């Protein structure tokens, strides 16, 4: 009987020690920090992947990546992915009177003429000529309020940018899109300023 009592007492001590180890963390702090850093990295990677998916299905490339002619027909210029209207791309002249009833798109798909004048698709890459210097708060303001560069006292973003539709996206979706855009390859490209109504747009 004494032997049994000793065995149970020993087992109880072992279990108590194990529970104490669990409550105190069990693992060295370095391992916990490493796990935390890994979790953060995985979360950021997931956010960027979600942002890339949203940019694809929301049609951002349709305006912000110029089209070029290839042997197989028009295709997106991979060297200008999301870089907006190429700064040195010449534009054909047009008759401003047409824009009273029509909206015209350039062959690249990155310049649009309408009753508002001529607007150019912005550079969305991580370069400083794009959104490289933007904050997340600026991006959310731009999408929610249609403010140029997401700043107060700036002009509204021009058509055909459908910010009114994107304003209904959740904060989580917009933050994912911003995270992806900030992770893109930087493309130096200073997009031309808009042309006022009634004027001829020329880029030499």
Structure notes:
The chain is mainly alpha-helical and 204 residues long. Helices cover 41% and strands 9% of the residues. It has helices at residues 2-23, 29-57, 60-64, 136-145, 163-166, 171-183; strands at residues 67-70, 73-76, 104-105, 111-114, 117-120. The strands form 2 sheets. A 3-stranded antiparallel sheet has the order 3-4-5, with no helix packed on it. Helix 2 (29-57) crosses helix 6 (171-183) and helix 4 packs across helix 6 (171-183).
Task: Briefly characterize the structure.
With 204 residues, the chain is mainly α.
Structural class by sheet pairing and helices:
mainly alpha
Rounded Rg: 28 Å
Beta-strand fraction estimate = 5-15%
Mean pLDDT: 85
Number of strands: 5
Q: For this entry, what is the oligomeric state of its chains? A: single chain
Q: What is the share of helical residues?
A: 40-55%
Q: How is the biggest beta sheet arranged?
A: 3 strands, antiparallel
Shape: globular
What descriptive keywords fit this protein?
204 residues; mainly alpha; three-stranded antiparallel sheet; two-stranded antiparallel sheet; globular; disordered N terminus
């Amino acid at each position: 009987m004494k032997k049994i009592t000793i065995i149970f007492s020993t087992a109880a001590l072992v279990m108590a020690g194990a529970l104490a180890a669990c409550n105190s963390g069990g693992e060295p702090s370095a391992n916990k920090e490493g796990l935390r850093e890994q979790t953060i990295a995985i979360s950021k990677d997931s956010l960027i992947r979600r942002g890339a998916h949203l940019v694809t299905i929301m049609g951002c490339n349709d305006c912000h990546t110029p089209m070029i002619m290839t042997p197989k027909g028009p295709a997106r210029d991979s060297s200008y992915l999301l870089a907006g209207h190429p700064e040195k791309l010449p534009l054909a002249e047009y008759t401003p009177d047409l824009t009273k009833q029509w909206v015209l798109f350039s062959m690249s798909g990155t310049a649009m003429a309408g009753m508002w004048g001529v607007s150019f698709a912005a550079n969305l890459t991580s370069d400083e000529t794009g959104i490289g210097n933007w904050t997340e708060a600026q991006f959310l303001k731009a999408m929610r309020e249609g403010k140029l560069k997401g700043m107060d006292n700036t002009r509204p973003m021009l058509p055909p940018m459908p910010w009114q539709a994107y304003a209904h996206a959740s904060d989580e979706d917009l933050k994912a899109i911003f995270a992806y855009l900030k992770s893109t390859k930087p493309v130096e490209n200073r997009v031309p300023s808009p042309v006022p109504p009634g004027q001829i747009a020329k880029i030499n």
